[in-house]
Specification:
The protein is about 20% helix and about 55% strand. It is α+β, with helices and mostly antiparallel strands. The protein has one domain: Lipocalin (Beta Barrel), CATH 2.40.128. An 8-stranded antiparallel β-barrel has the order 2-3-4-5-6-7-8-9. A hairpin with a 4-residue loop joins strand 7 and strand 8. It starts with a helix and ends with a strand.
């Protein structure tokens, strides 16, 4: 009887393992584009940041999970043509006023729930960790099975992750140069 129970347990584990698949993303063709704007006048900055690694969990032919590590040292701006100005902004974004990349070299997104609105549109709930602070986020994502690609756009409130430089939450008053608390992301994940 005990042998039968052990055999059934191993069979169950094997079936569960076969039904679930880990799909590694291609970090060279996956991309994150970020956008930061001033609070009360037009303008801002945009740039890119790279994935270090990541994967989807696929169960019974559906995406059911995922985990993605972001290389914070890869953060760079694209909108400033002057090399010195661009490097100045990039270094400022990497210092303690913003992302403190020497202390926190990676950020992480872990899917906690995936709901299919239809075969091509997902509602994803996830935990986003920046500067060792984890907060829940959610967003809609489009899936293109032919291209093996998922795309999404979403915004976060940076102050929830302790990024408060020139924020209305810290400053308490309106002034020129106030930066919006929202950071927008345009994400493309490819296998």
């Amino acid at each position: 009887m005990k042998t039968l129970q052990i055999t059934l347990l191993f069979t169950f584990i094997s079936v569960m393992t076969l039904a679930q698949e880990k799909l590694e993303i291609n970090t060279s063709t996956s991309a994150i584009r970020w956008f930061g704007e001033y609070a009360f006048y037009f303008g801002g900055h945009d740039g890119t940041i790279d994935f270090k690694k990541g994967y989807f969990i696929k169960t019974d032919n559906k995406i059911t999970g995922g985990q993605f590590i972001i290389d914070m040292n890869s953060l760079k701006s694209l909108d400033i043509e002057d090399k010195e100005g661009r490097e100045g902004l990039d270094n400022h974004l990497k210092n303690k006023d913003f992302f403190e990349v020497k202390t926190y070299p990676t950020a992480k997104i872990i899917f906690t729930n995936v709901i299919y609105e239809n075969k091509d549109v997902l509602k994803i709930y996830a935990n986003l960790t920046i500067k060792n602070i984890t907060k829940p986020i959610n967003f809609r994502a489009d899936v293109d099975s032919d291209k093996k690609e998922m795309t999404t756009k979403f915004k976060i409130d940076r102050t929830l992750w302790g990024i408060t430089f020139n924020s209305k939450e810290i400053e308490g008053k309106l002034k020129d140069g106030l930066i919006s608390d929202a950071i927008a992301f345009d994400v493309k994940l490819r296998l």
